[in-house]
Amino acid sequence: MTARITLVQGDITGQSADAIVNAANSSLLGGGGVDGAIHRRGGPEILAECRALRASRYGRGLPTGQAVATTAGRLDARWVIHTVGPRYLPEEDRSELLASCYRESLRVADELGARTVAFPAVSAGIYGWPLDDAARIAVETVRAAPTSVEEVRFVLFDERAYEAFAARLR
Description:
By secondary structure, this protein is an alpha/beta fold. The protein is 38% helix and 19% strand. The chain has helices at residues 33-42, 44-55, 95-112, 131-144, 159-169, and strands at 4-9, 19-24, 67-71, 79-84, 116-119, 151-156. The chain is globular, with a radius of gyration of 14 Å.
């Protein structure tokens, strides 16, 4: 089954979904951008579970392209799925790592039984991935991924990001 893809312009922390995907850094301990916003709005429960993950399975941090779930704390969701996007390097094709973020997040969502998943534009912020290419990889990967998720919602922070994703859906 393929998920229905919808687009929303706005703040991902205000979304109501079974799972909200966090464009995390490998430390899992919060950061800037989407990561910082999710930790701030979600509250200390998310950070507590991230610390427990670091103390057990991910002592060196979550590897790029992988995904892991925690509680959603005070967010209007059941889970936060943390995924570490690659930094954009013009001299190295890291597209497969970015695609893996979406595939792995959907795999985790399926394991959890999530039906609605809200994604940010992974790696398109401070990690420098060109927006049009980030949108292409995100949409193509989600369309091709086998999943039980019914709705994938891309929550885009501004009009430029929204338009880049909308162009890929046309």
